[in-house]
Amino acid sequence: xxxxxxxxxxxxxxxxxxxxxxxxxxxxxxxxxxxxxxxxxxxxxxxxxxxxxxxxxxxxxxxxxxxxxxxxxxxxxxxxxxxxxxxxxxxxxxxxxxxxxxxxxxxxxxxxxxxxxxxxxxxxxxxxxxxxxxxxxxxxxxxxxxxxxxxxxxxxxxxxxxxxxxxxxxxxxxxxx
Length: 177
Ligand SMILES: [Zn+2]
What we know:
Layout lengths: L12 E3 L5 E3 L9 E3 L5 E6 L10 H10 L11 H11 L4 E5 L10 E5 L3 H21 L4 H12 L3 H11 L11
Antiparallel strand pairs: 1-2, 3-4, 4-6, 5-6
The protein binds zinc ion.
C-alpha cells in the first residue's frame, strides 16, 4: 500500500560522485565516513559538525575575526570550509539541502568522493592558504615573514594525524574542543 504523502517527510538524498544514490536518512549526525556500495569510503559532513572537527577552536576564532562572510551564515564555519573544498574539487564533492526532511537532525549534507582523512587534509591546506593570503595583505611585513616561516615547517599530514588521534571522531557526541 502506498504511503500517504506528508509534507516535510520527503526523503531527501543525493547522488554521489561515484554515481550511487544515498538517502539522508542513511546518514546520521555522528557519521564521518560512508561505506558506499561502490566499495569506496566517502567523507560525510553535516552543518551540525563544528569547524573544530578540522582545526583547533583557537584557529576558528582567528578565522572568524579575519574573515568576512558574504552570505547568509553569520560567521565563518563548516559550510564555508566545505564551500572552499567544493571550489577546489567541484567534481568530487556533492551537497544537499535536506532541511525539508523532518527526520534528519541537520540541514546541510556534504559527501566527498574521498575519505574523511583526505578531506581533513584538504580543509587544513585550504585554511592555511587562506591565512597566508590574509597575512600577506597586512602592512606588517615581519609578521607576514614570520607566518610564512612557520608555515614552511608546518606538516599538514602530521597535523591531521595528531588532531584525529586526540579527538574521537567516531563519537556522536563530539563537542567543540
Ligand atoms: Zn561510492
